[in-house]
Amino acid sequence: MKRAYEKGEAEALIAELDFDFTEFMDKDWAVWARGDQLPPPGPPGGTDWSVWLVLGGRGAGKTRAGAEWVRGTALGLPPFADEPVGRIALVGETLADVREVMIEGVSGLLAVHRRDERPAWQSSRRRLEWPNGSVAQVFSSEDPESLRGPQFGAAWLDELGKWRNGDETFDQLQFGLRLGRRPRQTVTTTPRSTPLLKRLSADPRTVTTRARTWANARNLAPGFLDGVLARYGGTRMARQELDGEFVNERADALWRRDAIEKVRAEPGDVPPLMRIVVAIDPPAGSGRHSDACGIVAAGLDANRDVWVLADATVEHARPHVWAARATALWRELEADALVIETNQGGEMAEAVLREADPGVPVTPVRAMRGKAVRAEPVALLYEQGRVRHAGRFEALEDEMCDFGPGQDGWGLSSGRSPDRLDALVWAVTALALGPKAGARIRRL
Hints:
CATH superfamily of the largest domain: P-loop containing nucleotide triphosphate hydrolases
CATH topology of the largest domain: Rossmann fold
CATH architecture of the largest domain: 3-Layer(aba) Sandwich
Low-confidence stretches: 1-5, 436-444
Strand content: 15-25%
Distance between the termini: 52 Å
Oligomer: single chain
Number of domains: 2
Shape: elongated
Structural class: alpha/beta
Number of strands: 17
Radius of gyration: 27 Å
Number of helices: 16
Largest sheet: 8 strands, mixed
């Protein structure tokens, strides 16, 4: 099939077009935007949302999405608004951030408008005025009290994850969003695990879209992604700053991410191991309403250091599914034993494993102490550098760095069961804190 244009023909055709027409096409955001850069539809047929939360990596196009939303809202352009919104708040970490990024930046408000519709920036009054009469006022998280008094029909909040007085500024803004039929706000930010962002993302009136830096590669400098991937690929920072993920870490957690990074190694660096176990923390229930079944494999080397080898945890699975997964990992690693916690239906758990593989050596263990008491000696081994991670186990490490004290005892901030962590604790305990480790040497 012949292409519509040979090489160079499309460029020549565009060059012949009228400047006003090409500017019109260039500023038609609905033509160029990705799906994650357009606001979610409202009723009828959509969600009656009040917050559009745009979570994205660095350079993913969050600022452009926010600026285009404000443009469409101020001018009353579908799908952003049915009619112009006359009063808009622009809120950033500092006043300089609002001016240099949200207003005057490469993807800011002045850049996304056509000449005939571009608002006038009055720096002395800290406001933008559109030809149609709409006005946007500038505020910063450094001065929450400045939001007392003004009222708005819409707001754009940029980089909420690093606001200095986040809660107070956000709360003051909510009291001012009281104009029009449906006041709305757009939040564009790289995700950080702040309480404010977590609450906002969990609010049923919030609709969240996510964008990875890679989605905007064609608009980034050549070599940028290759450079940052070479330096940060696979790290916590890459997950947050490039993938746009929430990476949880509690201040009171038993583990810290920087400490885990210090004991990380590549899978090929694992030395000969004296003993390998696959530990299982089975769920109390079964099926889609049950907890996950934690399955973690670890080995012990000649220096009595523990190497975490695999996290094969199964989410919401029936017993025959997690038993098959655990015995398959046991065979793959040629492990010495399956260690299984038997507080919840111990006989049933052992029977399920033996049904999956009659020859599997099962070592039952029983929890006589609380989770924190069992986990603390394991955390101490990490601090001593005696537990190593052979690779990256993101879900497991998320639980480790979110395990801390709460009103109902130690656990995860979400209230879920720390199934992966429990399996890790059983594996490390069996190898380094329990009876003797074996003497058989093996290589992976």
